[in-house]
Known about the structure:
The structure holds 3 protein chains of 3 kinds. Chain A has helices at about 10-20, 55-75, 75-80, 95-110, 145-160, 205-210, 240-250, 285-300, 345-360, 365-370, 380-385, and strands at about 5, 25-30, 45, 85-90, 115, 135, 140, 160-165, 170-175, 180-185, 190, 195-200, 220-225, 235-240, 255-260, 270-275, 305-315, 325, 335-340. Chain A is α/β, with parallel strands linked by helices. Chain A has an 8-stranded mixed beta sheet with strand order 5-6-4-14-15-16-13-17, with helices on both faces. Chain A has a 6-stranded mixed beta sheet with strand order 8-2-1-12-19-18. The radius of gyration of chain A is 20 Å and the shape is globular. Residues about 250 of chain A have low confidence and may be disordered. Chain C has one helix spanning about 20-25; strands at about 5, 10, 30-35, 40, 55, 60-65, 75, 80. By secondary structure, chain C is mostly beta strands. Chain C has 1 helix and 8 strands; from the N terminus they run ββαββββββ. Chain C has a single domain (about 5-80), classed as Roll (Ubiquitin-like (UB roll)), CATH 3.10.20.440. Chains in contact: A-B, A-C, B-C. At the B-C interface, strand 9 and helix 3 of B face helix 1, strand 4 and strand 6 of C. The structure holds flavin-adenine dinucleotide and FE2/S2 (inorganic) cluster. Flavin-adenine dinucleotide binds near residues 10, 37 and 271 of chain A. Chain B: This is NAD(P)/FAD-dependent oxidoreductase. Chain B: It holds the Pfam family Pyr_redox_2.
Amino acid sequence: MSAVVVVGAGIVGAACAHSLSAAGAEVIVLDRGSVASGTTSRGEGNILVSDKEPGAELELARLSRDAWLEVGEELGRETLELEEKGGVVVAASPEALDALSSFAAAQRSAGVTALDVAEPRELEPHLRAGLAGGVLYPEDMQVQPVLAAAAMLEAAQRRGARFVAGADVVAGVRDASGRLTGVRTSAGEVIGADAVVNAAGTWGAQVSERLGGPVPVLPRRGFILVTEPLPPMVRHKVYSADYVANVSSSEAGLETSCVVEGTRGGTILIGASRERVGFDTTLDVDVVSTLASQATALFPFLERVNLLRVYRGFRPYCPDHLPVIGPDPRVPGLFHACGHEGAGIGLAPGTGRLIAHHVLGGGPLAPEVAARFTALLPDRFVQEA
Amino acid sequence: MPLSDLPPDGVVIVGAGPAGLACAATLLDQGDTFVTVLDAGSGAGGQYWRQPAPPADSSDPGALRPDAMRGLHHDLGTFAELRSRLEAGQAAGRASLLTDHHVWTVVAAEGGHVVHAVDRSGGPGRERAVELRARHLVIATGAHDRSLPFPGWDLPGVLTAGGLQALLKAGDVALGPRVAVGGTGPFLLPVAAGLADRGATVVGVFEANSPTRWLRELRAVAANRTKLAEGAGYAATLLRRRVPVRTRTMIVEAHGRERVEAVTVARLDASGHPRRDTHRRIEVDAVGVGWGFSPQLDLAVTLGCALTADASGTPVVQVDEWQRTSRSGVSAAGEACGVGGAALAVAEGRLAARGIVGASASDAETAGLREEVARLRAFAAAMHRAHPVPAGWADALRSETVVCRCEEVSAGTVRHAIAERGATDARQVKQLTRAGMGWCQGRVCGHAVELLAGGGSGSPAERLVSTPLPLGVLASRKSRAM
Amino acid sequence: MSTFRFDDVSIPFRDGQSVGAALVAQGILSWRTTRLEGRPRGLFCGIGICFDCLVTVDGVPSQRACLVRARDGLDVTTQEGSGYAAE
Ligand SMILES: Cc1cc2nc3c(=O)[nH]c(=O)nc-3n(C[C@H](O)[C@H](O)[C@H](O)COP(=O)(O)OP(=O)(O)OC[C@H]3O[C@@H](n4cnc5c(N)ncnc54)[C@H](O)[C@@H]3O)c2cc1C
Ligand code: FES
């Protein structure tokens, strides 16, 4: 049996612990804070296939979607607030609809269910009139990220995993051959391991450096608006087609295109902007106002609805906008599972399985399935450097 | 008022209570900058000098008049003087008082800050977004009642102590006829005295702490004789009105179906736990409970101002000898720097103003103000030490007692998140249970949840939006700019 | 004396009073029910902090009765749950 240290108790670390413990590993999860104290508590909980173009990330999203349903079976959908609500992408103009249609066509050929919708108001009666059209993605889902991370971590603990909150990992411990044999915390404690998983999210670059195998992970700021509680008025995740362009964009500036969705608690979430401004925590009123004006343009009834809260988070992104998942070729015993940008919630359980596969050499995934994710391996950053 | 109408180098004061008004008056006396005072209320005065809204028709004989409220206020002379100085400033084109303007956020900008407010003066559905530039910003946002849950506390007719007083001061309504006042702190006395004076039957003031705790604070008391006289005045009223004051006693439950009908009170044992064998049921029509006050820190936290803890461990804004915060161009005065009463707030407001105009540290007035602030702060610290929340405050909570009133989260759910799911502070409890996620954003339940989690007052909640505003109002900012 | 409507009754008020103060003066202590359990609520903090006193004013839901100033002819209605009709 191998001992695995997972650094980070966000959604990704929790999913890794969940999969690793299921496959029989002895797991210790370390977090400098508590469960979900990083970006996981700052996101929206969208589990989307709709916003991904064909490629490794879409494959991971599809793997994760199935995995989410299994997690829901195991731990109870209620516990996670997992809902198969579906996503509706709407286009304001005929040009936008053309772009959306060809995007959806490519997704269909990769196995995604995407249904053309002539009148989006038949699905969402409170949308504004006069939209050019839309696409329904029935596979899109939603989860409450903190509840999901806590539940997966608790399930791992029931299988014998340990969780240590307040443990900041400051260095790796290596043997003479250079193999990672454990980590050292700021309290000076050394925790031995056969494998160490870097699931430190937006702080993944820092942790990777401390463990001797640096990978580039940067922060991308996002604001989310939360309204007063309402009866169900928005049934799906609704967003405008420009979102598709923004997600994959690598421009440095601000991009906003709002996603509007209802929650179990009755509030409506409007998110999220994307900016590269480092870890700047200040509120940007213009960004927040832009999100408000986009949301009210989609759903006019929102004009009178009160904004109660704005929160922000820093998405972990790699320069090529793909997560980094797999063994570090430079440091035996080190595995990375970070850089999921705006999709870490959705991609978490697939990542957990992939990591269990890499760490335990086999595990839950068939080799031909694992082979679809070579584009996510850390090697791409090592070769570059 | 559109942005361009305001001089770009003005001082903007958030809050027209004692601290904000004193700051404005001193700025107008000593400096030559333009002063803007914003307040969410319908007039100047804040919580302490709370007034009815100015009458729409001044000839209406039925309208409420501030003078009618005279007996309820302390030191109204100071209020009248400060307000008239602000009015003179307004008349001279040097000052502006924006009431019904709630600041929802503040952002650092080139050469100062931009203050974002929502103007509610047009009434429901007609709110407007307003922005002001501030060369210097003064946070004088005061405090609100601190509440702790108990069974029945969500029944209609159970209010905070401050809520009862606000009804009296601003509405001339004495809730009753039979009313119980409970919690801790000297503030309970004026609330009870005011109600009794207006004809309510105050069935008792139930103070959780013992007056003997003040014996350890004689130095602070001796240095603040006016405070003593003020307290003695209220005590005399209560005596005259035959209002029983029960110490080491707390209200442990409110009873009723559609509204409060009775309370149960209990004596506290030596370690601060209510004794079951002392339960006594009293019929009432209304209840006011207050456990001191929580400073309103939203703007300061959003700006990243350094905080410190007061004598009770409550986070407050950290200020230097000129009331300047750790952020340049931002001062704070009054309860935001620690709850201590109106006289302290006035002194701090004046000191903040002198700091802004660059007064000399060695002039007699500054030295006098500093001495006054130190003396009153010492008294405030003594008060915090003499009136802690008793250890057994939560003994009476049942598992079904509501803790978060907005999201209707029960004590049992909160305790489960702490005991079974490892939550150690209010933020984690919130994310696991929704306690604190509703309309009030944890302003009411936050302290209790923090105490239940064993954390006491750790780091305060971050609220980037300090008051709700319609999305359309926010969106209109964008269309205007484009 | 000036009055406003509260559901089907006419509520007198003194100029300067809030809607909440005027209702309480008439012995009306609650004017809202909660979203989840339908519990009655009225004033709690009295100063705009707690949002327990929400009421629908002139058709606009979720106004704080303790802050909204009473005006002649105002149309105030009990608020159930969120104050918005479900679809
Ligand atoms: C505004 C916004 C909206 C979003 N919306 C969505 C969405 O709808 N759907 C979706 O799928 N994703 C969304 N995301 C992205 C998603 O939140 C992230 O991709 C995801 O949370 C990343 O999870 P993680 O576990 O990798 O990181 P985190 O949750 O940040 O976890 C990393 C953990 O590592 C710990 N850590 C760091 N350094 C150390 C150390 N030295 N020692 C010990 N512990 C350490 C941290 O304390 C933290 O708990 C959104 C993000 C933002 C900002
Ligand atoms: S009574 Fe608390 S907001 Fe009105």
